[in-house]
Amino acid sequence: MRHNRLGRRTLSTGKDRDKSVAEIIRELKQSGSPQNDYRRHSLAIHGLICAKCGQEFDERNRHLLTVHHKDGNHKNNPPDGSNWENLCIYCHEDEHSRGLLADYLDNNRGSNGTD
Questions:
Q1: Within-domain flag for 109
Q2: Which of 42, 46, 66, 75 has the fewest CB neighbours in a 10 Å radius?
Q3: Do residues 115 and 109 touch, judged by C-beta distance below 8 A?
Q4: Gap between the Cα atoms of 26 and 21, Å rounded
């Protein structure tokens, strides 16, 4: 195992060690990130609007619009977009924090003598 200049461990294979940074970046851009592919696809299907609060977005602020996986599985990306909904960053955070709050309340219910 190798360490980078910040002291973090890095993994490298023999063939990757011989590549330049420019070659690695070029390969990453050509391969395309699955995350970007489903995000682009979801925005095209569902439009630039938050499914929860209804805020509309345009090219200037589309980076504030995220893709939420309804079933919680980020690997479940059907081509029809049925597992996605576009949410603004605030509604997306709210969606995930609701689940955390519910789990917390369920785990603590009854521990203080109340039901």
A1: yes
A2: 75
A3: yes
A4: 9
Q: How far is the C-alpha of 72 from the C-alpha of 25, rounded, in Å? A: 30
Residue 45's domain spans which residues?
Answer: 34-115
The answer to whether 10 and 3 are in contact (CB under 8 A) is yes
Global pTM reads 0.60
Segment 78-103 shows an average pLDDT of: 90
| Backbone phi, psi, residue 87, to 5° | -130, 140
Helix (H) or strand (E) holding 88: strand 84-88
**Residue 5: what are its φ and ψ, rounded to 5°?**
-70, -15
| Residue positions counted in the chain | 115
Number of domains present in the structure of the chain: 1
State pLDDT tens for residues 61-83.
Answer: 999 999 999 999 989 999 999 99
73 Rama class: left (phi>0) / alpha (psi -120 to 50) / beta: beta
